[in-house]
């Protein structure tokens, strides 16, 4: 196992760029937000990513609360046509914080340089505006933002149920 240590906080993008320096090859990898629980079939997401020749593939969900999650729009081929700066309304597709990433898509434009940078606010819009192919696959699994206390409890309950009720969750 390889890992990186940030001497000073580098933001979500800076940490990613630093970790990408440790990759042995240019195979697609899975990136997960650490403050959400999203029940996604990773294999299906990877197969979708590969089949679309995507630079970055997003796992998407239907927002159940207004204005809480970043919205996206997709076309009939599931290509993301808009990264909404406004938040998704109820029932709209939203970014679930799980991605399959082709490292070459990021390496063409960004390198670790020790500066703080945001994946969501800097890298994603930069790549999208540069024409990198973004696709989205809607997942119907449970999505919970565990960064909010009441939802943290809900996520704990979901994981407990999925473990078969084991005390070792």
Summary, kept brief:
The model has no long low-confidence stretch (mean pLDDT 90). This protein has one domain: Spore Coat Polysaccharide Biosynthesis Protein SpsA, Chain A, CATH 3.90.550.10.
> What is the mean predicted local confidence, pLDDT?
90
Q: Do you know the CATH topology? A: Spore Coat Polysaccharide Biosynthesis Protein SpsA, Chain A
Radius of gyration: 16 Å
What is the CATH H-level superfamily? Spore Coat Polysaccharide Biosynthesis Protein SpsA, Chain A
**Cα distance spanning the termini:** 23 Å
Strand content: 25-35%
Query: What best-fitting shape do the alpha-carbon axes yield?
Result: globular
Strand order of the largest sheet: 1-6-3-7
**SS element count, helices:** 5
CATH architecture: Alpha-Beta Complex
Biggest sheet descriptor: 4 strands, mixed
Q: Could you state the order of secondary-structure elements as H and E?
A: HEEHEEEEHHEEH
The helicity comes to 25-40%
Total separate domains:
1
Low-pLDDT segments = none
At the first level of CATH, what is the class? Answer: Alpha Beta
Structural class: alpha+beta
């Amino acid at each position: 196992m390889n890992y990186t240590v940030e001497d000073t906080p580098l933001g979500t993008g800076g940490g990613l760029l630093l970790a990408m320096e440790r990759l042995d090859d240019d195979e697609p990898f899975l990136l997960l937000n650490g403050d959400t629980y999203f029940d996604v079939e990773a294999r299906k997401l990877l197969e979708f990513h590969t089949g679309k020749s995507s630079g970055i593939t997003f796992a998407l969900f239907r927002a159940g609360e207004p204005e809480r999650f970043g919205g996206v729009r997709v076309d009939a081929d599931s290509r993301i046509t808009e990264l909404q700066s406004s938040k998704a309304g109820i029932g709209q597709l939203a970014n679930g914080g799980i991605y399959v990433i082709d490292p070459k898509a990021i390496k063409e434009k960004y390198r670790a340089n020790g500066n703080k940078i945001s994946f969501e606010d800097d890298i994603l819009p930069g790549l999208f505006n540069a024409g990198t192919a973004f696709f989205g696959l809607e997942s119907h699994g449970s999505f919970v933002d565990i960064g909010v206390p009441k939802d943290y409890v809900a996520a704990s309950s979901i994981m407990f149920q999925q473990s078969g009720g084991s005390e070792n969750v």
